[in-house]
Amino acid sequence: MLKSFRIGGIHPPENKLSRKAAITPMPLPEVVVIPLSQHIGAPAQAVVAKGDVVKTGQLIAQSGGFVSANIHSSVSGTVTSLDPVADAGGVRRPAITIRVEGDEWVDTIDRTPNLIKECNLTPQEIIAKIAAAGIVGMGGATFPTQVKLSVPPGKKAEYLIINGVECEPYLTADHRVMLERGEELLVGVQILAKALGVKQAFIGIENNKPDAIKHLTELCANTVGVEVVPLKVKYPQGGEKQLIDAVIGRQVPSGGLPIDVGAVVQNVGTSLAVYEAVQKNKPLIERVVTVTGKSLKKPSNLLVRVGTPINALIAYCGGLPDAARKVINGGPMMGRAVANLDASVTKGTSGILMLDEKEALRPVPGNCIKCAKCVSVCPMALEPYLLSNKSKRGMFADLEPLKITDCIECGSCSYTCPAALPLLDYIRQGKAEVMKIIRSRKS
Question: Are 135 and 269 in the same domain?
Fold first, then answer.
């Protein structure tokens, strides 16, 4: 019997249009714009100046604190600006603009295809190399990986869980990584396990990817301490807490972290990046991005340099379809609408999705019919209708005891609401206000 998490969940149409599209390297753009804040935590601080000539893989911004990440040039060329540039949401943020002039890489990066399995580094040395390479969670959260691997005093990691679920509709980047880069991925898993000091790692993969399950299971036959766990297809199984429940049957307590139940979760893309950083000295300068949509000519999985404009990806896949009414950064459930197609691909860009009018149009909200469907599907056992109502009325002080900060913003409540109420919109607003209250209280 296939495993899954126990509370809530839905099954939206999968629409994995690009599942058979092999990873294709994206041509270099003429200019890249590399944001200084493309990770959770403090923005990085620029260590280059206008007019500097940089190489591919060169450090251009240093982490700005413990929870932060280094940033490296994804191209070779000349720094033309250190001024703020509009991001995908249209907000101007600090960035480094580089005019592309060839593709000369830093000498220390090993660009050969040779697989390097043996890692003789200590856990501390592994974590240091990961930090130096600017690795972050590539499933969308962009939490600095070295911080996640630094287990707090009094806590103990027992299991490493690798997230190969990719439960968001449309997205297939992780699926292709598992199929095409499986050997490197598994070495990355072993390196992460060594850094944590754990003996057992699990790779959770939903059953709609039977080829990936078969491929990695065969590879794991010769890999000690790594096991593939097939999972029932259910959204949002890619959430950390849901994946932990599905794979090892432990539930993270309200307000708690995975490490509280002895688990550390990493994405398959992150595991590959860790292999490249530790074994090849390659910083995180590129990633696989799914570019897709029902009206797109060529749904694809592209290997893209960080800083490449989103519109360049769309153009490479046949151009913006006439039927497109909305462009989403990420998947349709948790992604955000793109207000600026000139914005850059970042370390956390998992997909670019074009929706047609039928998919993009929001129905006119009706009245709540007290059906409680939003409650039954919430994977965090919250009461979305209540959280939304209180947020809508500005009753933010009431929301903290109702555990609004446990919300993972998966959108299951809005998706299932027969009245088409914008539940998640109000919950996000309320959650942001409660986080402000909590930060103010701590300071």
Answer: yes
3-state helix, strand, coil in the chain (%, to 5): 30, 20, 50
Q: What is the pLDDT of residue 222?
A: 85
Sheet holding 200-206, edge to edge: 226-231, 200-206, 159-163, 263-267
Residue 21, Cβ neighbours under 10 Å: how many? Answer: 19
Tell me the per-residue pLDDT of 317-342, one tens digit each, with 9 for 90 and over. 999 999 999 999 999 999 999 999 99
pLDDT tens profile 34-55: 999 999 999 999 999 999 999 9
Task: Report which residue type is found at 195.
Answer: A
pLDDT score of 219 more than 90: yes
- 253 CA to centre of own chain: 23
Element housing 337 (H / E) = strand 336-337
pTM of the model: 0.96
- The per-residue pLDDT for range 231-243, each reduced to its tens digit, is 999 999 999 999 9
Residue 401 in any domain: the answer is: yes
Range of 253's domain? 123-280
Buried b or exposed e, range 385-407, using 16+ CB within 10 angstroms: bbbbbbbbeeebeebbebbbebb
On whether residue 330 sits in a domain, the answer given is no
- The CATH number of the domain where 210 resides is what? 3.40.50.11540
Domain final position from 242, 257, 280: 280
Residue finishing a domain among 280, 309, 331: 280
Q: Are residues 272 and 391 in the same domain?
A: no
Q: In the chain, how many domains are there?
A: 2
Confidence label for 288 from pLDDT (cuts 50, 70 and 90): very high
